[in-house]
């Protein structure tokens, strides 16, 4: 009986050693890092989405503001928030790509909105809008930081999944590589939408005839 228990204990010990040696524990650790990084990305994107209704409401108060630019922001926000951003999204390359594209469109629409605001001195001088602009600028910076952390976490995980001999562990336990932000998106990652204003106010738009 003692011999049987000893054999079982040695077998369990050997299995634990093999799992640790082939990267099993590293997969668990890095997977948790990816999940945590992704949660922060979602948190900052949600923070931006929550700011937009107030920005839109403030801009709507400006007479003769370009409605097409405003409409694109509203539509881009609706599209981005319509995608269910669950933790499982990071394991679905197609869904991840759609989510990334929608957030990219929203960022571009916000950039165009802020450029358009430059032509409206009264709106630029609006303290409520100025406060929202500062919040948006801070949020865009936090999005950049969160995305970069996610990129690093995914890169670390994917290197482990592709390297020998840990790639064998990945095959056995079905640890697939995770989707990441695309190379084409790197410029957007390092350059958040421009939301700062010059002190000198440009001339107001010419009145339509």
Can you walk through the features of this model?
With 209 residues, the chain is an all-alpha fold. It has a single domain (27-190), classed as de novo design (two linked rop proteins), CATH 1.20.1440.20. It has eight helices and no strands. It has helices spanning 2-21, 24-60, 67-82, 93-117, 121-124, 127-162, 166-173, 186-190. The protein is elongated. The N and C termini lie far apart (100 Å). Mean pLDDT is 82; it is low at 9-17 and 184-209.
- What is the H level of CATH, i.e. the homologous superfamily? LemA-like domain
Q: Would you count the extended β strands for me?
A: 0
Average pLDDT over all residues = 82
Share of helical residues: over 70%
CATH class designation: Mainly Alpha
SS strand fraction: under 5%
In one word, what is the shape?
A: elongated
CATH architecture: Up-down Bundle
Structure classification? mainly alpha
- The count of helical stretches stands at 8
Count of separate structural domains: 1
Query: What does the main sheet amount to?
Result: none
Radius of gyration: 24 Å
Low-confidence stretches: 9-17, 184-209
- Measured between the Cα atoms of the first and last residue, the distance is 100 Å
CATH topology name: de novo design (two linked rop proteins)
């Amino acid at each position: 009986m003692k011999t049987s228990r000893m054999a079982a204990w040695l077998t369990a010990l050997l299995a634990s050693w093999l799992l640790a040696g082939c990267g099993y524990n590293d997969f668990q650790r890095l997977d948790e890092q990816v999940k945590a990084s992704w949660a922060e990305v979602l948190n900052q994107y949600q923070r931006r989405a929550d700011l937009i209704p107030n920005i839109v409401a403030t801009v709507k108060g400006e007479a003769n503001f370009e409605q097409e630019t405003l409409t694109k922001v509203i539509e881009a926000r609706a599209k981005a928030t319509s995608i269910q951003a669950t933790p499982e999204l990071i394991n679905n390359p197609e869904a991840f790509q759609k989510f990334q594209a929608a957030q990219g469109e929203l960022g571009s629409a916000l950039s165009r909105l802020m450029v358009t605001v430059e032509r409206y001195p009264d709106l630029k001088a609006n303290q409520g809008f100025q406060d929202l602009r500062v919040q948006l600028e801070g949020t865009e910076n936090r999005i950049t930081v969160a995305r970069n952390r996610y990129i690093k976490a995914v890169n670390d995980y994917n290197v482990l999944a592709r390297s020998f001999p840990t790639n064998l562990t990945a095959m056995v336990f079905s640890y697939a590589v995770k989707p990441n932000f695309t190379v084409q998106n790197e410029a957007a990652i390092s350059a958040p939408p421009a939301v700062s204003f010059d002190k000198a106010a440009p001339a107001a738009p010419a009145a339509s005839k």
